From TrEMBL, chains A, B:
InterPro entries per the UniProt record, alphabetical: ATPase_NBD, Bacterial_glucokinase, Glucokinase
EC number of the protein: 2.7.1.2
GO terms under cellular component: cytosol
Record-level Gene Ontology MF annotations: ATP binding; D-glucose binding; glucokinase activity
Lineage, opening ranks: Bacteria, Pseudomonadati, Pseudomonadota, Alphaproteobacteria, Rhodobacterales
Key words of the record: Kinase, Transferase
Record-given protein name: Glucokinase
Pfam families: Glucokinase
Superkingdom of the organism of origin: Bacteria
GO biological-process terms attached to the record: glycolytic process
Database matches in Gene3D superfamilies: 3.30.420.40, 3.40.367.20
Species assigned in the record: Aliiroseovarius pelagivivens
Broadest EC class assigned to this enzyme: transferase
Assigned protein family: Belongs to the bacterial glucokinase family.
Length: 320, 320
């Protein structure tokens, strides 16, 4: 008899729920809910379970866009708190886990289909035990590292998007000052997120007195149509991305590769070759060439966080 | 019969070698060698072993100030390459390991005597499984995190000192530009190291046309004697330290505490209360209060890297 788990990916806007059979997400079980119409995750999971009431779930894992500590977490951009006891009540699964969404993405790395990964920079081959860094750029920014430890894959949580925005040029520093004047602080995710690309564009508009407030999709569309200010915004975003990825690579040494995930990662990748991304990535003085060994890859699978939850639960189950 | 290991801590200038008995460093076995008089670590270890030729060593672990990959490493500031095979030849120990020195320091955290740890900031209590971040400030800058994984303590390597120097004010940006003009890049360790405090002082001297080139010990002495430029240099160092520790805390979430090690950590700690350190540490926008939960501690034990090597070997031995 297959082992059934329930997995969910709770973003700032939507929640995806699915069933995993023996560690594999069942594609036709995936269901998407708008958070706006619901009071809590419990309500969504209860509704989902009602549609699958013949199934007995042994485990549940939920990936959330927010900090997790001691099995409990709250969403950064939504007033929901999620803990293991409420997950068990909503799903009937006795074994419940809350993961940060980037932790879930990092657990997915070993299980991704080759078709859902694209090379951005090839790097060097590494041993199967090498660490993977996953960087998520979407509504916010965060990262997580998957380490192959003797007892299994270890993925510690992180909140790296709230670290100080690094700047390398006078223009970038002026941009950071602009962010500080608007938000009181210039964090990485104020530049590297959907909002962040909007802020990059706002900064160029602000300098020439144009109205601000374009969404990231509008900036990409304008750049595709040849608009210089939109292209400059994409270049600023890309250069900062190069700097930040280089800093994270030095801090975590992901010899197994850097995996970019999230909507903004997919949207920015086609532009990287036309920008200062690579120069910024290598701008680490005598440690610049050291960075060449780290491959950078794009994950195009929308459901990687669900795959990661399923993979995490399966590894736990096999270990016990 | 006790289990004998040989452990060593190879810095840029000196190498310390000791014997560990059942995972404990024997204090009277510690011997210090100046690297300058020796061709290689092999030569030092061979000399040390000659003095202890009645002992049969089962294991050897060496902590080095430089990047380590797949059991081999090279010193960042000295032309020595160190691998497991040469350690076995020099010591006779069949089980050989090369660690980055910060990895070794991180393995020491659980074995430090209470007398060799001082509170800088108390933080909140955490579970025994919580991660520890060790930050080394001395000749260079680096960090490592100790994670309690199901299979034992995992301490991944890092080279965080070569990441981009974060700046939060116009003065700090001007300082970073000064570093870039001198060294081609402004890395964290160009500010946060012995040399780094010298660079902070150089920057203030440069602005008023004074000669540059004071050593960190001279800056501390001048500040103690009331010299304003020396005090400003210490303040600049401390503010950048606050920013960098906050960034590393967000990237690694060390709920078990941040442990500062190295000569510069000890030298700067008494000054932190008179500087902008705490304000810089908390300057993370809405994530500022989140940082209050992380304790910050100073490690005053000079031999913590040796303790860490011994602890690492003992954990391996017990696991097998």
């Amino acid at each position: 008899m297959p082992h059934h788990s329930i997995v969910a990916d709770v973003g700032g806007t939507n929640t995806r729920v699915a069933i995993a059979l023996d560690g594999q997400v069942a594609p036709d079980s995936i269901q998407k809910f708008a958070n706006a119409g619901h009071e809590s995750l419990t309500e969504i999971l209860t509704a989902y379970r009602k549609d699958h009431d013949v199934v007995k779930f042994e485990q549940v894992a939920v990936a959330i866009a927010g900090p997790v500590r001691d099995g409990q977490g709250c969403l950064t951009n939504l007033d929901w708190t999620i803990d293991c006891a409420s997950l068990t009540r909503a799903t009937g699964a006795p074994d419940a886990h809350v993961l940060n969404d980037l932790q879930a993405q990092a657990h997915a790395v070993g299980s991704l289909a080759p078709a859902s990964v694209e090379d951005i920079q090839t790097g060097q081959n590494a041993s199967p035990e090498a660490a993977h860094l996953v960087v998520g750029i979407g509504t916010g920014f965060n990262s997580a590292v998957a380490y192959q430890a003797p007892g299994g894959t270890l993925v510690p949580p992180a909140e790296s998007g709230h670290a100080t925005l690094p700047v390398s040029t006078a223009d970038q520093f002026a941009f950071a000052e602009y962010l500080r004047s608007r938000f009181g602080h210039a964090a990485i995710e104020d530049a590297l997120s959907g909002r962040g690309l909007g802020h990059c564009h706002d900064w160029f508009c602000h300098q020439v007195g144009h109205p601000i407030g374009a969404k990231s999709a509008q900036v990409f569309a304008a750049a595709a149509a040849g608009d210089q200010m939109a292209k400059d915004s994409i270049n600023l975003f890309s250069c900062i991305l190069g700097t930040v990825l280089g800093d994270l690579a030095l801090t975590t040494l992901p010899f197994g590769g850097i995996y970019l995930v999230g909507g903004m990662s997919r949207a920015i990748t086609p532009w990287l070759g036309q920008t200062g991304f690579e120069a910024a990535w290598q701008d680490k003085g005598r440690f610049g060439p050291f960075l060449d060994q780290f491959p950078i890859r794009l994950v195009t699978d929308d459901y990687a966080a669900l795959t990661g939850c399923a993979s995490f639960l399966e590894k736990l189950r096999v270990a016990h």
